[in-house]
C-alpha cells in the first residue's frame, strides 16, 4: 500500500466506525451500509463505482478518504491447489497469506502482524522478530486480494468460506485492529461470514482473551503444543507469564454464555522427541478434559536453521490413537502447500529472505496426506 497519510483508508473502518465517519461528515449513518456493501461485497476500488451515492458526496469522499490496497508481490499456486500471496504493506514490509481449498471449503489463513514478538521455538515467523502491527485495512485487504484473485467480486459466490487468523503474528497483540477486522468479516453488509467460520488463533494472551469476549464471539483456537508448563515454557515462552491452567480457565470463561455448543480448537504441533511421546499424549488428555475442545494435531513443518523434526507417521498415529481412545475429538492437519512454502509455520513474508531460503531450503516431500481424511482447520 502506498502511503497517503492525510486520507483515511475506508477499508480499515469497522461498521460502527464507518457510521461514525459519516455522522461526522454530517451525513446519515445508513450511508455506511451502502459504502460497506460497495467496498466489501462489490469490491469497489474507487468512489466513482458507488452509483447509489450522489456525485457530490462521492467527490467529498474522494477528498477525505481513499480505498488503498496492497501490492501483490507474489502469487503462487501449489500443486495441491493451495495458493499463497506475498503482499507489500505500507512502508514496504511484506506479509504472506494462504488460501487452502478443501472440498467446498476455502479457508484463508490471514496474517495480523509483520513478524511476531512471541518467539515460539518451532515457528519461523517468530525467528524473524517483530516488525509491526498490521492495520485493520491491511488485514481486510488480504480477503479482498484472495476474493479478487478468482475474478471480479461476486457476493453470491463464497470464494473465501472460512478465515483463520493463523498466519504471521499474534492477533491478540494487535487487539483493536484485529477485532475491527473480524467485525468486518462477520458483518452481513461486508463479508457476512458466520462466527463459526472466523477463527482467531492465539498463543494465549490471557487478559486479552477476556477483553475479546467482551467485544466479540469469534471462534477461538489456542496454540497449546505442550501438556505441562515446563515444556510449554520452552516452546511457547509466553507461557511463563500465562501458564496452562490460567489459559484453560480463560478458555472456559470465553465459552461461558455463548450458548451454541461451541468448543475451543486446541492446536498442538507435534515435534519428534519433544512433545510427541505417549506420556505427553496421556498428560494432554488430562489437560483437555478441563475445557470443551477439539484437538488439531499439526505435524511440525521444517524450516531452515531449525533442529526440530517432524515425527514419523507411526508416532503421529500413536499419539492420535491415545487421544481418540480418551474420547477427545482429534484431527491431524494435512500439510498443504509445502511446495510453495505455504505450510503452517513457514510464513516469513520478506521476499528477500524467501529468495535466500529457496537456496537453503530442502523441502520434506510428502506425497500423501499425513492423515487420509481431508483436514478441517
Ligand atoms: N500467534 C498465533 C497465531 C499464529 S498461527 C498462535 O500462536 O496461535 C500459529 C500456528 O501455526 C500454531 O498453532 C501452529 O499450529 C502453527 N505452526 C507454527 N509453526 C509451525 C511449524 N513449524 N510447523 C507446524 N505448525 C506450525
UniProtKB/TrEMBL annotation:
Coiled coil: none annotated. CDD domains: Radical_SAM. Its cofactor is [4Fe-4S] cluster. This is Dual-specificity RNA methyltransferase RlmN. S-adenosyl-L-methionine binds at residues 169-170, 201, 223-225, 301. Binds 1 [4Fe-4S] cluster. The cluster is coordinated with 3 cysteines and an exchangeable S-adenosyl-L-methionine. The lineage of its organism: Bacteria, Pseudomonadati, Pseudomonadota, Gammaproteobacteria, Oceanospirillales. The gene is rlmN. [4Fe-4S] cluster binds at residues 116, 120, 123. It comes from Marinobacterium iners DSM 11526. InterPro entries: Aldolase_TIM (IPR013785), Methyltransferase_A (IPR040072), RlmN_N (IPR048641), RNA_MTrfase_RlmN (IPR027492), rRNA_lsu_MTrfase_RlmN/Cfr (IPR004383), rSAM (IPR007197), rSAM_sf (IPR058240). Its main location: cytoplasm. Keywords: 4Fe-4S, Cytoplasm, Disulfide bond, Iron, Iron-sulfur, Metal-binding, Methyltransferase, rRNA processing, S-adenosyl-L-methionine, Transferase, tRNA processing. The active site is at 96 (proton acceptor), 344 (s-methylcysteine intermediate). PROSITE patterns: RADICAL_SAM (PS51918). One of its GO terms (biological process) is tRNA methylation. The keyword GTP-binding does not apply. HAMAP family: RNA_methyltr_RlmN (MF_01849). PANTHER family: 23S RRNA METHYLTRANSFERASE, RADICAL SAM CORE DOMAIN-CONTAINING PROTEIN. GO terms for molecular function: 4 iron, 4 sulfur cluster binding; metal ion binding; rRNA (adenine(2503)-C2-)-methyltransferase activity; rRNA binding; tRNA (adenine(37)-C2)-methyltransferase activity; tRNA binding. Reaction proceeds by a ping-pong mechanism involving intermediate methylation of a conserved cysteine residue. It catalyses: adenosine(2503) in 23S rRNA + 2 reduced [2Fe-2S]-[ferredoxin] + 2 S-adenosyl-L-methionine = 2-methyladenosine(2503) in 23S rRNA + 5'-deoxyadenosine + L-methionine + 2 oxidized [2Fe-2S]-[ferredoxin] + S-adenosyl-L-homocysteine; adenosine(37) in tRNA + 2 reduced [2Fe-2S]-[ferredoxin] + 2 S-adenosyl-L-methionine = 2-methyladenosine(37) in tRNA + 5'-deoxyadenosine + L-methionine + 2 oxidized [2Fe-2S]-[ferredoxin] + S-adenosyl-L-homocysteine. Residues 102-339 form the Radical SAM core domain. Its EC number is 2.1.1.192. It is found in: Cytoplasm. It is an enzyme of class 2 (transferase). Specifically methylates position 2 of adenine 2503 in 23S rRNA and position 2 of adenine 37 in tRNAs. m2A2503 modification seems to play a crucial role in the proofreading step occurring at the peptidyl transferase center and thus would serve to optimize ribosomal fidelity. One of its GO terms (cellular component) is cytoplasm.
Amino acid at each position: 500500500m502506498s502511503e497517503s497519510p492525510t486520507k483515511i483508508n475506508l477499508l480499515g473502518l469497522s461498521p460502527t466506525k464507518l457510521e461514525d465517519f459519516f455522522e461526522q461528515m454530517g451525513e446519515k449513518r445508513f450511508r455506511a451500509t451502502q459504502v460497506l456493501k460497495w467496498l466489501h461485497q462489490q469490491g469497489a476500488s474507487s468512489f466513482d463505482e458507488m452509483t447509489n451515492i450522489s456525485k457530490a458526496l462521492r467527490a467529498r469522499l474522494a477528498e477525505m478518504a481513499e480505498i488503498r490496497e496492497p501490492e501483490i508481490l507474489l502469487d503462487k499456486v501449489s500443486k495441491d491447489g493451495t495458493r499463497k500471496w506475498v503482499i507489500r504493506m505500507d512502508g514496504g514490509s511484506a506479509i504472506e497469506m494462504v488460501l487452502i481449498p478443501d472440498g467446498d471449503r476455502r479457508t484463508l489463513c490471514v496474517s495480523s502482524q509483520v513478524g511476531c514478538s512471541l518467539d515460539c521455538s518451532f515457528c519461523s515467523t517468530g525467528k524473524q522478530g517483530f516488525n509491526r502491527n498490521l492495520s485493520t485495512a491491511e488485514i481486510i485487504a488480504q480477503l479482498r486480494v484472495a476474493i479478487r484473485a478468482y475474478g471480479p467480486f461476486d457476493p453470491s459466490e463464497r470464494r473465501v468460506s472460512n478465515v483463520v487468523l493463523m498466519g504471521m503474528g499474534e492477533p491478540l497483540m494487535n487487539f483493536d485492529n484485529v477485532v475491527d477486522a473480524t467485525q468486518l468479516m462477520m458483518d452481513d453488509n461486508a463479508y457476512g461470514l458466520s462466527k463459526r467460520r472466523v477463527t482467531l488463533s492465539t498463543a494465549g494472551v490471557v487478559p486479552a482473551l477476556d477483553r475479546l469476549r467482551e467485544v466479540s464471539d469469534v471462534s477461538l483456537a489456542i496454540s497449546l503444543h505442550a501438556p505441562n508448563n515446563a515444556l510449554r515454557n520452552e516452546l511457547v515462552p509466553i507461557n511463563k507469564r500465562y501458564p496452562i491452567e490460567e489459559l484453560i480457565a480463560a478458555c472456559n470463561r470465553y465459552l461461558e454464555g455463548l450458548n451454541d455448543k461451541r468448543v475451543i480448537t486446541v492446536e498442538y504441533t507435534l515435534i519428534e522427541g519433544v512433545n510427541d511421546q505417549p506420556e505427553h499424549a496421556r498428560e494432554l488428555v488430562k489437560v483437555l478434559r478441563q475445557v470443551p475442545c477439539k484437538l488439531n494435531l499439526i505435524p511440525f513443518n521444517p524450516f531452515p536453521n531449525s533442529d526440530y523434526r517432524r515425527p514419523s507417521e507411526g508416532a503421529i498415529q500413536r499419539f492420535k490413537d491415545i487421544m481418540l481412545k480418551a474420547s477427545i475429538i482429534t484431527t491431524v492437519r494435512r500439510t498443504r502447500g509445502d511446495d510453495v512454502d505455504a505450510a503452517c509455520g513457514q510464513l516469513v513474508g520478506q521476499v528477500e529472505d524467501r529468495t535466500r531460503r529457496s537456496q537453503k531450503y530442502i523441502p520434506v516431500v510428502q506425497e500423501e496426506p499425513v492423515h487420509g481424511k481431508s483436514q478441517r482447520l
